[in-house]
Amino acid sequence: MAGSGMAGQEAAGNLRLDFAADPMAVRRALQFVVEALEDRGVAADDRALAEVLLAEVLNNVVEHAYDRRGGWIEIELSVSCLPGPMPGVVPAAVTAGGGGGRPVAPAVAQSSRAELGFVVYDWGRALPGGTLPDGRLPPIAAGELPEGGFGWYLIRALASDLNHGREGGRNWLRFSLVQEQRAALG
Amino acid sequence: MKLRTELRGTALVIRVEERRIDAAVAIRFKDLMRDLVEARADRIILDLGQVEFLDSSGLGAVVAVRKMLSPGRQLELAAMTPTVARVLALTRMDSVFPLHAQIPDLPGPTAHHAG
User: Fold this and answer.
1) How far apart are CA B96 and CA B88, in angstroms?
2) Rounded to whole angstroms, how far apart are CA atoms A108 and B66?
3) What pLDDT digit, counting tens, does each position of B25-34 carry?
């Protein structure tokens, strides 16, 4: 992590993390978030979807808000437990990845679905037209396959409660990954 | 970005020896693949068994590789991990590529080199 300029700050279920707006720093930030989710007992399936969702949001900031010229990103993550057991829960050990390492989170959270909320801040360009893209899946025509346009589609598919705004030169995007969405994707 | 190729019969198996195909490596992946797919092989099979994460940039690069192939040649995807399979399904790209849960049965390797 040396020289990455990344700083994390953890409260009970929440996390704040800031990092440079470049693809390698984004990659490290995603790994940091995924490990933090694991420490909080979030199931492997949800961690994977959260990583895809957050990756797409962060890639957009790097590529569009900052036009790949670099900048700074800050994220806030909140994890709150939803009541009730979740069908087909995945045991924590599955993703231990070679064992040893970090202590496993208390098993209590494993039986509940966590609601994961995110806020992403950047100090780059405003969204064109001030609105979030539709995220329609690019058409798949024979011989004319889309190489892009998947990012917002994935965000729209995986996020709920998507909100955004701009205040004092700072963009914010707030969203969560909720149970119904994930059940529908199952 | 490490890619390992193995010519098996008339198929070229390209194993992606990386945990991620994401925005950080998508362009590099595309450039390396451009050279590898020049090989004389009817089938190009991309072994994704080690790839745990694919984002929209990585997916775009995989689609771009498919478009590099001359007509009649196909890019097949094999050994997808759960998250990669999820991204392919969500974006309907699972209907574009022939998919193999595992590397298909092929003749033994006849040559290989690391890329």
Assistant:
1) 9
2) 46
3) 999 999 999 9
Helix (H) or strand (E) holding B83: helix B82-90
**Range scoring the smallest mean pLDDT among A44-48, A92-96, B11-15, B53-57:** A92-96
Cβ–Cβ below 8 Å for A151 and B24: no
Number of domains comprising chain A: 1
> How many domains does chain B contain in total?
1
Q: A76 and A119 in contact (C-beta within 8 Å)?
A: yes
pLDDT at res. A4: 44
Angle at the Cα of A148 from the Cα atoms of A115 and B2, rounded to 5 degrees? 85
Residue B115 lies in a domain: no
Q: Which amino acid is at A87?
A: P
Report, as ranges of residue numbers, the positions in chain B whose pLDDT lies below 50.
none
Count CA within 13 A, CB hemisphere, residue A181.
Answer: 22
Choose the closest CB to A52 out of B24, B55, B66: B55
Interface residue A135 vs chain B (CB under 8 A): no
Inform me whether the C-beta atom of residue A144 falls under 8 Å from chain B C-beta atoms: no
* Mean pLDDT to the nearest integer, A56-67: 96
Q: Does residue B113 lie within any of the structural domains?
A: no
* Residue A3: pLDDT band with limits 50, 70, 90: very low
Residue A103 has pLDDT above 60, yes or no: no
Q: Alpha-carbon dihedral of residues A43, A175, A179, A115, nearest 10 degrees?
A: 50
Query: Tell me, what amino acid is at A130?
Result: G
Domain limits for position B54: 3-104
Substitution target from A147, A155, A182 for chain B, most B beta carbons within 10 A? A147
Assign residue B58 the CATH number of its domain. Answer: 3.30.750.24
